[in-house]
């Protein structure tokens, strides 16, 4: 098998972010230098208020940095117009949030199909099959015709993951996806993210919990807006286990 060189998907150089409320500047991110390759499963971990969601919003094109450089798939994002950024957002990235944000009194399959309505790459006749493929991937085949409010919290989050998957994005961002779940449902959700990673998806997880972060193969620690540690020992450990098995 030919081993492909890892390709940089996300690259930031000296990225800074401040929020401005009238005349008051709140600096939140400082000199963020980051490279994330296609196919990685990365956790961004840090205490409340350290800037994790802010960084995720910038990497996912929901917000823009105050200074510095952000390249996505080798292309600078600085000169892009609002429309171009919106197009990158709708075709290349998906989000899973702590609160599942499903449409209530709407079936699982309709919730999962929703992003395809705005997705130019999918023919209307292909939507149901695409949605079912994503629903199967999160183990909810038997629940596809249930209403979202007839599901448990863990099942609702799995629907949200299916909805994130359905457009086949370059990267899935998950911000505290287990934050509203009991520990067993949270573990199940993390196992699904691990399975998706093994199938080749790029996943960027934001969490303040060590046990959740340890499902990833790399943990970027953020403190007061600074990256203080970039720990790849999990990937090395997994790689050495694989080698021992050979
Ligand atoms: N719109 C805003 N205006 C001003 N300050 C903001 C704004 N949004 C966030 N902040 C500040 O930026 C800092 C980082 O916030 P952020 O939401 O990125 O933290 P977080 O690490 O995701 O925290 P949590 O774990 O609680 O979700 C906080 O101090 C917060 O008060
Ligand atoms: Mg947050």
Overview of this structure, please?
The chain is of the alpha/beta class and 246 residues long. 33% of the residues lie in helices and 28% in strands. The chain has a domain at 8-100 and 174-245: P-loop containing nucleotide triphosphate hydrolases (Rossmann fold), CATH 3.40.50. The strands form two sheets. Strands 6-7-8-3-9-10 form a six-stranded mixed beta sheet, sandwiched between helices. Helix 4 crosses helix 5 and helix 5 runs parallel beside helix 6 (183-198). The radius of gyration is 18 Å and the shape is globular. The chain binds adenosine-5'-triphosphate and magnesium ion (MG). Magnesium ion is lined by residues 52-53, 175.
Tell me the span between the first and last alpha carbons. Answer: 16 Å
Strand fraction: 25-35%
Number of helices: 8
The name of the CATH topology of the domain at 8-100 and 174-245 is Rossmann fold
| Distinct ligands, ions and cofactors found in the model | adenosine-5'-triphosphate, magnesium ion
Identify the CATH architecture of the domain at 8-100 and 174-245. Answer: 3-Layer(aba) Sandwich
Could you spell the SSE succession in H and E letters?
Answer: EEEHEEHEHHHEHEHEEH
Topology:
Layout: E1 8-21, E2 24-37, E3 41-45, H1 52-59, E4 67-72, E5 75-76, H2 82-92, E6 93-96, H3 108-113, H4 127-137, H5 153-165, E7 171-175, H6 183-198, E8 202-207, H7 210-213, E9 218-223, E10 226-231, H8 233-245
Parallel strand pairs: 3-8, 3-9, 6-7, 7-8
Antiparallel strand pairs: 1-2, 1-4, 4-5, 9-10
Helix pairs in contact: 4-5, 5-6
Bound molecules: adenosine-5'-triphosphate (ATP) and magnesium ion.
Magnesium ion is lined by residues 52-53, 175.
């Amino acid at each position: 098998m030919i081993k492909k060189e890892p390709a940089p998907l996300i690259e930031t150089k000296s990225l800074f972010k401040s929020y401005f409320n009238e005349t008051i500047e709140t600096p939140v991110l400082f000199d963020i230098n980051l490279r994330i390759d296609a196919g990685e499963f990365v956790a961004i971990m840090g205490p409340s208020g350290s800037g994790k969601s802010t960084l995720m919003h910038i990497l996912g094109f929901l917000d823009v940095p105050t200074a510095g450089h952000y390249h996505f798939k080798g292309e600078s994002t600085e000169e892009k117009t609002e429309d171009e950024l919106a197009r990158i957002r709708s075709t290349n990235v998906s989000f899973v949030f702590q609160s599942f944000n499903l449409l209530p009194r709407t079936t699982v399959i309709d919730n999962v199909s929703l992003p395809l309505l705005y997705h130019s790459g999918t023919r209307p006749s292909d939507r149901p099959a695409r949605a079912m493929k994503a629903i199967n991937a999160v183990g909810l085949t038997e629940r596809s015709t249930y209403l979202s409010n007839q599901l448990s919290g863990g099942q609702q989050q799995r629907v949200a993951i299916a909805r994130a998957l359905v457009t086949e994005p370059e990267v899935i961002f998950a911000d505290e996806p287990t934050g509203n779940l009991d520990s067993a449902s949270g573990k199940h959700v993390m196992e699904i993210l691990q399975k998706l990673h093994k199938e080749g998806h790029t996943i960027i997880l934001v969490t303040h919990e060590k046990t959740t972060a340890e499902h990833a193969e790399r943990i970027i620690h953020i403190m007061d807006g600074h990256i203080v540690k970039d720990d790849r020992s999990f990937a090395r450990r997994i790689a050495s286990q694989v080698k021992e098995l050979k």
